[in-house]
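quick one: S-adenosylmethionine bound model?
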Amino acid sequence: MQLDVFTLIPHAFAWLTEQRPVAAVLGDELDLRLFSYRDSTPLAGSQVDDEPYGGGAGMVLRVDVVAAALDAAYGGPPEHRVVALTPQGRQLTQAVVEELAAEERLTLLSARFEGFDERVLAHLASDSISIGPYVLSNGDLPAMVLLDAIARRLPGALSEGSGEVESFSDELSGGLEYPHYTRPAEFRGWHVPDVLLSGDHARIEGWRKEHVR
Ligand SMILES: C[S@@+](CC[C@H](N)C(=O)[O-])C[C@H]1O[C@@H](n2cnc3c(N)ncnc32)[C@H](O)[C@@H]1O
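yep, here:
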């Protein structure tokens, strides 16, 4: 997958690209490109934002700036999906992650300040996604949430089998994963369920099915 992120802070992504699972697929299943709106802005002084028409607090990311960034990267309007990150977008779920992870090319647009000029959403983006019903200071954390969630669905991101039976997966009928325990078997009087120590795989399987939430 080629995943392009347009942002004002490309270096914010450095940490994530060094961590698994993103690091495991980078340069192989994942071609990640980070673009700064400031590198292609047609405005003087690296300007990217402006005051809102009608007045009010905050600055708005300009439509001509976003268009120039897309033109510089693609030579015109891209034919693949362009997802704007906004609190007003479709709520992110595992089903949306699976849908995005199946794309060959994907562009994420991050904003800050008061957000995008509405014409970005109407004419330059193909859809909008929110990572939850709360407001963050910019779209970079949402873009990183998507990047991580998508990366772990790409081949080679996870060790064999660990990405199949997970919360929200078909294997668990969309439910939440059963509880996990590891050593010690008893700690401060808190015991691991006996069945998990039994070595009886059928009973363990049954217990896990019962405890899908
Ligand atoms: C401070 S927020 C803008 C909030 C906007 N004025 C509002 O009231 O809905 C700046 C940017 O952060 C990003 N952002 C903030 N919260 C988000 C969320 N829950 N999901 C996706 N993006 C978000 C978006 O790119 C947004 O344009």
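The beta strands are 2-7, 31-36, 49-50, 60-61, 81-91, 105-109, 127-130, 186-187, 190-191.
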